[in-house]
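Workshop exercise sheet. Pairs work together: one partner reads the sequence aloud, the other fills in the structure field after running the prediction. Swap roles for the next sheet.
Pair: D.N. / O.F.
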Amino acid sequence: MTPREKFITALEGGQCEGRVPHFELVFFLTMEAFGRIHPTQRYFGQWRQMSQSERGLHIRDIADLYITTAQHYEHSAIFFHPPGGWNADTDEETMRVFDAIREQSGMEYFLMMHGDATYSVPDGDSMMQFVSDIADKPEEIKDRAKRQVEAALQRGEKYKAHGALDGMALCSDYCFNNAPFLSPRMFDEFVTPYLVELVAGYREMGFYVIKHTDGNIMPILDSLMAAKPHALHSLDPQGGVDMAEMKKLVGDKVCLIGNVNCGLLDTGTEEQAIESARYALKHGMPNGGYIFSTSNCIYTGMALKRYELILDVWRKEGNYA
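Structure field:
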């Protein structure tokens, strides 16, 4: 089986032969690993001034870096982030990168992009306005949520027609470490119906859907499950999410991705990092429906050797008989 086929098998709740699939939502340490700037740290601001030849060179280089990362660290999937962020202006270039990835690697890797349109934890600049609007203009908030989902699904149709893409990763974060940013009741009013619609729309297009959120998802787990994503990521242990409990509660209904503690990879001891990886494998692997991953991503500032340390655990202990 190819890495892509193994990834899809896990997303569908199955168990593949050999090593359990692995990927990271983002691997930012490309400069340390390969001496190359990560695509998200490049800027497309001068894109309009470039010749077609120069644009093509950039696109091929970006595609090559994603493939190089996947090959080197044995990722089964590539989650593409366009330089400059997500907006309609990048769609043409994004599709060209997808084409370049497929041209260079065929169908070796599962290819996905960000496709969320639901409300996430507001940033500091917009938190007070969002809270006020929920209280004073709830119908306006819901109308906006509906329009956002409709726009995302229209965009999804463009990518489906183009081809190359396997799935959508929905990356709106809903939770702090101690609780969701909305109460379960309010979450079910302002987020759940739109998440259900979004996932259903993507699934109807034939996309696989991975729902990502950090933090303590346990109070809204039933709501997340109601949306019927193929997988949940990141199963954050810093938010009190336990792999053994998740496997027991929903492991037969959804693929589980993550749970290796990023905080311990960053500030814990080597022994703690190893134990976190070992725990996730031990409780996530039985009966399949599991993909090995950290509880967020391999972010800037993390020691590369810590990521390589948990990969050693995965290679030794993440194998089905």
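Discussion prompt: The CA atoms of residues 176 and 215 lie 5 Å apart. What would you look at next?
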